[in-house]
Each structure stands twice: as structure tokens, then as C-alpha cells.
Amino acid sequence: MKNKIENNKKNEIGISGFNSISNLEAEIMKLVWGKDKITVRKVHEELLKKEVQEKDHGFIPYTSVVSAMAGLAEKHLLKEDRSRKTYLYSAALDEKELSKSIIKSVADKLLTESSKNMVYEFLDYKNNITVEGINKLLDEINEKK
């Protein structure tokens, strides 16, 4: 059991807790962002299509997708419409909002006060979080150390 927990933590993006998501959850969010509303079945089908191209066995179970999407709804990252027999899901946050949330969480846990302030200013100032912008910010943080 301990190894399973450790393996799950290796697959997290962000800091443990509200602002961390697993690789599976990140893949699900990418699919949901591309749709207005989507069912678990459709997400599972899309994930399977991708997996079939990458490997020949060990495909993700439907129940894992159900659990992951329920977890994302509990974290308020997905909206869950239960008005029908088949639940419909939609994104509660866009990519930018989720990225900001994860980056702020990491900053809160790991950085000094001055570096945290620099990260917050960056997130508030930039309209688009880009890889180049994040790399520049990291360089600035490293210079302060």
C-alpha cells in the first residue's frame, strides 16, 4: 500500500492537497477544456484512443476515470451536472486559472517571501503564462538565492 501511495505522489503536479493533480487528472482536464460538456464514458474513450497509440496493454480502467473525475469535482476543478442519468462534466477553471493556482501553491510552500512576491506579481501581471515567462521568472528567483 505504501508503494502505491508513493507512486501516486510521484505523478502529482503541484503541492499535495487542493492544488495538486495527478497526471491522469491533468489529462482529463485537457480533454474537458476542449469540450463544453463531456461524459465520463467519452473521456474514457478518448484516453483509450491515446493509450492504444502508445502501448499494447495495461489500459486505464473505466472506474479509474470515474474516480478521477469525481475527485476533480470535489476539488472544484470540474462542475458536475447530475440532472440526468449520465452525469455531464465541464471545467470549473480554465487552464490559466489552474496554472496560477498550482504555481501559487508551490510558491507558498517552497519560496522565501521576496521570491513569493515576485511570483505573485508575475502571475497578476501576465495575461498569458508562457514557458518562456516561467523560465525567466525561475532565473530571477535563482539570482536572488
Q: Layout of helices and strands, plus pairs?
A:
Elements: H1 2-10, E1 12-13, E2 21-22, H2 23-33, H3 40-54, H4 62-74, E3 78-81, E4 88-91, H5 95-110, H6 113-125, H7 131-144
Antiparallel strand pairs: 1-2, 3-4
Helix pairs in contact: 3-4, 5-6
In short:
This protein has helices at 2-10, 23-33, 40-54, 62-74, 95-110, 113-125, 131-144; strands at residues 12-13, 21-22, 78-81, 88-91.
Q: How much is the radius of gyration in Å?
A: 17 Å
CATH fold-level name of the largest domain: Arc Repressor Mutant, subunit A
User: Per DSSP, what share of the residues sits in E-state strands of 2 or more residues?
Assistant: 5-15%
Supply the CATH class of the largest domain: Mainly Alpha
The tally of structural domains comes to: 2
- Pairing-aware structural class of the strands and helices? mainly alpha
Shape: elongated
Largest beta sheet: strand ordering: 1-2
Q: What's the CATH superfamily of the largest domain, by name?
A: Winged helix-like DNA-binding domain superfamily/Winged helix DNA-binding domain
Largest β sheet strand count, sense and barrel closure: 2 strands, antiparallel
> Given the structure, what is the number of helices?
7
Q: For the residues shown, what is the average pLDDT?
A: 78
